[in-house]
Specification:
The chain contains nine helices and eight strands. The protein has about 230 residues and is an alpha/beta fold. It has a five-stranded parallel sheet, sandwiched between helices. Helix 2 packs across helix 3 and helix 7 crosses helix 8.
Length: about 230
Amino acid sequence: MLHWPFVARLVIAVDGPSGAGKGTVARTAARALGYRHVDTGAMYRAVAWRALDRGVALDALDAVAAVAAAAAFDLADGVVRIDGHDVTHAIRTPEMDRAATLVARNPAVRDVLVARQRTLGAGGGVVMEGRDIGTVVFPQADVKIYLDASPEERARRRAADPAHTSSRTSDVAHVAEDLAARDKSDSTRSVAPLIRAADAIYIDTTGLPIADVVEQVLELVRDKAAAKG
């Protein structure tokens, strides 16, 4: 996909549950726009990994928040580093899925990471994906997208992704159970729950080729850029 001769420096928020296609769509759209891509979920995963690496229990809220506050992140070119450690692959496991869920429920960690994310996107020219981008991190984002898919489709996608499967979780039924638990945790947490922003464009990706979803996102960005002149 070719880069546009693109001048506008917009903030594009892409939210939605696991398996909806956020990562692939956000990365591909960012590449097409010549924008920076920020995976905020990777930041929570990286904090969980770093806390465990340092022997910090994830239910020790203040200690985990201290890990987040002291952390140095590098999210360039699809690589995730925290404090110099390349954790790109280490954080994409079922175990880290569960660990990140615990970390994401920690209000002090969210305060730290939301501030970092706002700094990363402050100059615009960013496609930022997560679960609270359009509602909390950038409620005034230029374009807000909420991606979703049927539970069955999301489970199939996640089960087919070797980065998120293991001997137990390669089974679609087990993956569906894990996703349902994650959905419940994300949508009921007291701080920044997963909800669709009132002004977000809803896209159901069930059965759609990624290229079609990306084109819908890019068309929304084109329209917003044209409206802003």
